[in-house]
Every structure is written in C-alpha cells, then in structure tokens.
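pinging the channel bc i need a second pair of eyes. not urgent but kinda urgent?? the chain im working w is below, pasted from the shared doc
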Amino acid sequence: ISGGARFGYMLVWVIVLSNLMAMLIQMLSAKLGIATGRNLAEHCRDTYRPAVVWGMWVLGELVAIATDLAEFLGASVGFQLLFHIPLIWGGILTAITTFIILGLERRGFRPLEAAIAAMVGVIAACYVIEIFLSRPDWGQIGMSIVVPRLKGTESVMLASGILGATVMPHVIFLHSALTQGRIITRNPEQLRKLMRFQLVDVVTALSVAGFVNAAMLITAAKVFHGTGHVSVGSIEEAHATLRPLLGNASSVVFGISLLASGLSSSAVGTMSGQVIMQGFLNREIPIWLRRGVTMAPSLIVIAMGLDPTRVLVASQVLLSFGIPFALVPLIQFTRDREVMGVLANSRLTNVISGIVAGLIIALNVFLLYQTITGR
C-alpha cells in the first residue's frame, strides 16, 4: 500500500521478482525436510559451533517476533476498522482468535492448514473485488515489470520491505519442518515424486500470495497515487480514503482482507517461532506460552500509542535483513550430496540460488549505505 501510493506501479517488478525468489527458496526448504527428515534449524544445530547456533537462534527469534508484530498489529487494526472499537480491544480480540486457530493444531496440521488456506482465499477474493473496482492501467503495470527501476532511499526501503514480506525468513525454517515428517521414505523414485507434488504445492500457494501482494500495490497505485494521494501514511488513512474514491464496499472489503491476513499470518508466525526454538535449542515450550510471549511486544506497541503502519513497514524491512541468515545455510545443506542424496541441488539450481542470495545481501547493504549516508 505504501509503495503503490508513493510510487505508483513502479515497484510491481519487485513483487514479481520477490515471488519468484520465494518459490525457489521454499522449494529448497521443503526439499531439505523431505530428503533428510530434519528441519533447517536442526541441521544448523548439528553443524555449527554452539556460539553460532545461539546467535542464529537469537536472530531467528527476532525475525519471528518482527513477523508476529506486523501480523498481530494488522489483525488488530482490521478489528478496529471493521467494528469501530479501540485498537487495544482489537489486539485482545486478535489474541483470542489466534489462540482458537492454533487450537486446531491438536487435531494435526491438516485442519490448521485448511483454516489458514480459507483465510488466504478470503484475502484473494477481497483483492479480486478491489482490482475490479479500481480498474488499473495494465499497460503501465506491464512496463514496470519489463523495465525495473528504483527511485531514492524510500523506494529502496519499501522494496526491501516487500522482499521481507514475500520471502519471510521464519517461513524458510517452518517449511522444512512441515515436510520433514509428512511422508517418510528413502526410495529415490518416491523422493522425486514427493518433490514433484511439492513443486505444484509451492508454485500454487505462492502464486496466490504473489497475486495478493501485487493486487495491494496495484490498487493503491491506481486509487491513491493516481488521484494525488501519494502521502497515505497509515492503514487507517488508506481505509478511510478508499470509501469516497471507490465506495463503501471497498473499504469493508479492505478491512476484511486485513483481518484475515493478520490472523492467518500470526498463526504461522507462532508455529515458526516454535520450530526455531525447538530446532536450535532442542527445547520446546507450550504453544500457548509461545503465543503469549510473542504477543507481548505487539500489545506494548499498541499501549504506547505508536503508529501501527510505521511499525509494520519497519518490521518487514527487518525481515529482509534476516533472510540471508536462513538462506545461506539452506543453500549450503541442499547442495551437499552427502546430506541430500538424490535430491541434492543441480549445478543450475546452485548458481541461481547463489545469485538470489547475492541480490538479497546486496539490496540490504545498499539500503544500509543509503540510510547511513542519506543519499
């Protein structure tokens, strides 16, 4: 929303490229779990020195908290906008609802995944409606993908935030855990067959996610940037401004999509934090306690009266900086034939994944340089 309002369609290419990167990275993560029966955090614990493992665990926890902060605040604002209640009550409702969603895990991963998939479906449907109402310029959108560009420090920061919100380092850890015990086999042909199914799963899921992300930016570009509202500075402003520009239905749809997004992602963030702690430290705490601990920073932000939108954007930029600390070990393990067997990366996959890691690191370094120098 911030990127579309400020720069129009210019950053659509960032979403497309980030989504392609996410597909590759999630495939590598899923492959690690299928081939070895162990997740990424467990491999790190067994491979690196204790000091490195503890450092990676701290970084992983910060990333999980940053993710949870963003999604919890998003759902809280969604409750606030839809039901016209104070933000703190939106936060309490978010906490209660997330506990209910996580309670589905007691019946296995399938019911929880079904609930999350349903909420993602709601988000996608909402943005189909938003795009239909806004009628964007598809020619300009295509041009922004064909001719990628950035403009100043703010565009770089927003591009970094989009990357972090798309690739999400905590999900790199989670995906390897979700596939590690689903179907256990060491038969080479069965392993390859599992990976083919997994490829379809990842491409389908991330195509939907990519559509939602692109639809957010495209709608904001058409509705806000196209009408001169380039300084839409908060989610509340976006919600309020949609109403006179597109009608009452659009602002309600926006609130519903925000709520569904926040609740589904908050549940995923809690699961990821559990995997990170169990994998790095070989310790596990009850999911309700995990939820309570990661919820605390969000409630503190709400109680302090900080701007939720700025906190959201900053948290996604932090996610971008956390990606290399998960991606580099992932590439290291998945290229090792002793670890992966028949599912070890091909030479082409190693080259492409190395380029992806290099681009992400370069973007983060460039953002730091621009922020420090003010250029």
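so DSSP finds 16 helices and no strands in the chain. and The CA atoms of residues 64 and 366 lie 24 Å apart. — does that match what u expected or am i reading it wrong
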